[in-house]
């Protein structure tokens, strides 16, 4: 239901107002969720692999057409397909790749560490080469993206064994304590300087539960203590100002948990900032100066 909620909230119109040409490729299709128990450590592995394969092919088609793909979802495991496509696209062009992972969760579980076996808790691990071959093989190479080219921001819920996996992985992590200590501006300055050095193509994977549930209730896994409205807007505005973003995921939006579509509407506002919406136009390179 998430893609339709974003359409109803006016994502298409907002991007057009900002001068973008929009090509809605429609919904990606895939198998029905069978709601079965975990098998071999994973729930619904065959179905998730089919979905990610279809996402990979659709995102790659968009990239090949010279577009900036926006994947709307949906379970965050779909990002495995998105990154598989982007990594292939970048490898073919000799362009380095980096990713910002905006999320309340590290999503670095493996079968032995996951309490549930749900693959939406494992996509970063899969992208970094840890997981079932049905998923790790979707990219041109394993890993699809090395851990040290991924920066996570907003993390505040990590499973017990997963904590050790994250620490040992090489991921760059700004959890909410670091954001509290440094403030969002400094975090984004450091993160963007890092990915700007390591990757010319920046992929932003935005899990809506990155946001504090007080402003974004429409997700299945709310975690208190996330970024405020202004912190989130600053994050998106600074990503736009960097000029690095070339692809985007908007994930884990679930209208069944929302209140009058306000989470989807907030997502559209944040995407507007990612694509250049500003309070006032800032004069380039002149602190505190503005232009019309």
Strand arrangement within the widest β-sheet reads 1-6-5-2-3-4
Question: How is the main sheet built?
Answer: 6 strands, parallel
Tally of DSSP β-strands: 8
**Principal-axes shape call:** globular
Please count the helical segments.
11
Q: From N to C, what is the helix and strand string?
A: HHHEHEHHEHEHHEHEHEE
How widely separated are the two ends? 39 Å
Broad structural category: alpha/beta
Measured on Cα atoms, how large is the radius of gyration? 18 Å
Beta-strand content:
5-15%
Q: Runs with pLDDT <50, length 5+? A: none
The percent of residues in helical segments reads: 40-55%
Task: Please tell me the overall pLDDT.
Answer: 95
Describe this structure in words.
- The chain has 292 residues and is of the alpha/beta class.
- Helix content is 40%, strand content 13%.
- The chain has a six-stranded parallel β-sheet with strand order 1-6-5-2-3-4, with helices on both faces. A two-stranded antiparallel ribbon has the order 7-8.
- Helix 10 links the parallel strand 5 (201-207) and strand 6.
- The longest helix is centred in the first third of the chain and has 20 residues, at 45-64.
């Amino acid at each position: 239901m998430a893609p339709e909620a974003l359409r109803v909230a006016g994502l298409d119109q907002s991007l057009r107002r900002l001068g973008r040409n929009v090509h809605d490729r429609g919904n990606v299709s895939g198998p029905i969720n069978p709601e079965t128990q975990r098998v071999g450590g994973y729930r619904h592995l065959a179905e998730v692999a089919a979905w990610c394969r279809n996402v990979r092919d659709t995102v790659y088609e968009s990239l090949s057409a010279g577009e900036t793909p926006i994947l709307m979802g949906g379970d965050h495991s779909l990002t495995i397909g998105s990154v598989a496509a982007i990594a292939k696209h970048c490898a073919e062009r000799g362009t380095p790749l980096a990713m910002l992972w905006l999320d309340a969760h590290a999503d670095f579980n493996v079968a032995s560490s996951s309490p549930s076996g749900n693959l939406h808790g494992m996509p970063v691990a899969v992208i970094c080469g840890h997981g079932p071959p049905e998923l790790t093989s979707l990219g041109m190479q394993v890993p699809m993206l090395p851990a040290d080219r991924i920066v996570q921001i907003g993390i505040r819920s990590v499973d017990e064994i997963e904590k050790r996996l994250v620490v040992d992985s090489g991921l760059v992590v700004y959890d909410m304590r670091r954001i509290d200590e440094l403030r969002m501006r400094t975090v984004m300055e450091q993160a963007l300087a890092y990915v700007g050095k390591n990757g010319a193509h920046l992929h932003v994977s935005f899990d809506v539960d990155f946001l504090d549930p007080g402003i974004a209730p429409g997700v299945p896994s709310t975690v208190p203590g996330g970024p405020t409205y202004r912190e989130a807007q600053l994050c998106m505005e600074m990503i736009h100002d960097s000029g690095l973003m070339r692809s985007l995921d908007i994930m884990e939006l679930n209208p069944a948990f929302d209140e009058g579509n306000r989470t989807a509407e907030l997502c559209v506002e944040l995407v507007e900032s990612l694509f250049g919406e500003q309070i006032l136009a800032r004069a380039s390179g002149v602190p505190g100066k503005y232009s019309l």
